[in-house]
Design a protein that fits this description.
about 0% helix; 16 strands; about 220 residues; 16-stranded mixed sheet
């Protein structure tokens, strides 16, 4: 199987280790995934107002603004950075995350380039507490993976194998989804790590102005 070939530990080397304070690795508060590079994306049901802030310790925050109903949100992307790192077919993404507890928080690790090429390592909404959203928007397909250990405040290990013919998601070392679709042989895309805020259309909005946060203590890519 392809996943067995691409996942062999001795054939891989780490090509990216996230430093969420690095202006060489990351662009802060701007992304082509948002109209006009941001700062807002109302059409995607987000209350985000992106800000140019880096995230020491991998802690991503969102804070209510006094001027309007939007939230100052953290987003880091490799797009437009001096290093301009891209993941590509066959890469493996490993991350350790601590999920948020505040309603309205919408954390994600995902990929993006030229209006598409999106793979969601994960998305999460605390009002749907036992579910991780795992999606391949390149070839279509998703899974809402449910487990009682996925709760607000839980720390979870994630691995995604970006195969040409199938994308595999692992949680806590266990394979939870293989989509059988993959990304194709020539796929490549930038990384995005962020915290959005739901506007209430599909998930509950924040009940008050209490700041929201989640953490990604480690993120690396091997090839």
């Amino acid at each position: 199987m392809e996943s067995e070939r691409t996942s062999t530990p001795h054939t891989r080397r780490v090509v990216f280790t996230a430093d969420f304070t690095s202006a060489h690795q990351w662009t802060a508060g701007r992304s082509s995934a948002y109209p006009d590079m941001g700062p807002t994306n109302r059409s995607d049901h987000k209350l985000d107002h992106l800000r140019p802030r880096y995230c020491p310790g991998g802690v991503f925050r969102a804070e209510a603004r006094e001027a309007d109903d939007l939230w100052d949100c953290d987003l880091l992307t490799t797009e437009g950075s001096p290093e301009a790192f891209e993941v590509r077919t066959g890469d493996v993404i490993d991350a350790r995350i601590t999920l948020p507890s505040g309603r309205g928080a919408w954390p994600a690790i995902w990929t993006w380039r030229d209006g598409g090429n999106e793979i969601d390592v994960f998305e999460y909404h605390p009002d749907n507490p036992g579910t991780l959203e795992l999606s391949n928007h390149v070839k279509g397909g998703y899974r809402y993976w449910q487990d009682p250990t996925v709760t607000p405040g839980a720390t979870v290990g994630l691995r995604v194998v970006l195969g040409a013919r199938t994308v595999e998601w692992y949680v806590g070392g266990h394979l939870v989804h293989a989509d059988g679709r993959g990304v194709g042989r020539t796929w490549h895309a930038y990384l995005i790590v962020n915290l959005s805020v739901s506007d209430g259309t599909y998930h509950g909005p924040p009940p008050d102005g209490t700041p929201l946060s989640w953490a990604c203590p480690s993120l690396k890519v091997s090839r």
